[in-house]
Amino acid sequence: MTAKSLRLLIGGILLVVALAVLPLLAIDIPGVLPGPTYTPGTLQLLAFALLIAALALTYRMMFGLAGLLSFGHALFFAAGAYGLAMTLEAFGPAEWPSALVFTVAIAVTLVLGFVLAATVGALALRVTGISFAMVTLAFAQAGSVLIRRNPGSATGGDEGLALDTAHVPPELVGVVDTRNLYWVALGILVLVYLIVLWVERSRAGHVAEAIRENELRVRVIGIRPYDVKLLVFIAASVLASVAGMGYLLLQSGAAPRIATADFTLTLLVIVVLGGAGARWGAIVGGIVYTLLDQRLTALAGSDAIAALPDVLRIPLSEPLFILGTLFVLVVLFLPGGIAGLPARIATGRRQDRSIEPEEAVDA
Question: What percent of the chain has pLDDT over 90?
């Protein structure tokens, strides 16, 4: 292990430890957090941000690693949330312990997520480019319509599906246990990151990167791009289902909006905002976007915005307008996203150092 890898490993461990002890501290950041970090409202917001970061990381593996532009990634997030909710409600013999039912329900949901990912991926990857994106969009729209139609009263329709807490561990139910749910969200993020890291550093990950750069060249050397892309697609989709299960526990239910194509577009914005070229960029993008979305919504309804003239009040009262403007600015001035900012700063400093000697010679 090189010195740089060791420093990154130690830094990552320290960061996870710092995030793990955050619920035990009383850190208050006005304007960013709704209250001290030990309060349930703040912990729920932070846990949601961590889950969105994990979901964005799975989308980044598909889009940033393999170059697969999917408009239906939210389908698998919804499959994890709705799948676990329906499994807990419909499955569970009375003589089984609650912990066993909960564990089996998670396993069944993972299997269903795998089957769904393999089916969608096997069909969608028959085409490439924008055609692939349209096929994934069609599957996502079908899933969204199915959820809203509420067949057999299984999905709850537009009202969503509440979590059946009868077989959920009591440590994960209720406002008092929001701290435990935060740790679950952090654990999911760490798990997703480690699996994504393992996939990207594996032989399949290197081949997927080569396919993104030049698929024809990969075909020439005798490797089937379809198999590798399907593997990455399934891995990213199943991990998205894991994040969806965490969302169900955190929100105590699932809502139809998490299955829409708009939600997938939000993930694309998050990945581009954070930087598709780095794993930590997707994580930072997910956390920043979630916090901005929450705080801008609160700001939009504040008295300070209401007192402004109409020319300022109307756009500032729309959080999506502000987020869209921020996204445009990032695309224009930070092509590499937030993750590319340190490299741009370092490049600027090196250029400044190289200019100084030339100026001295001219003088």
Answer: 33
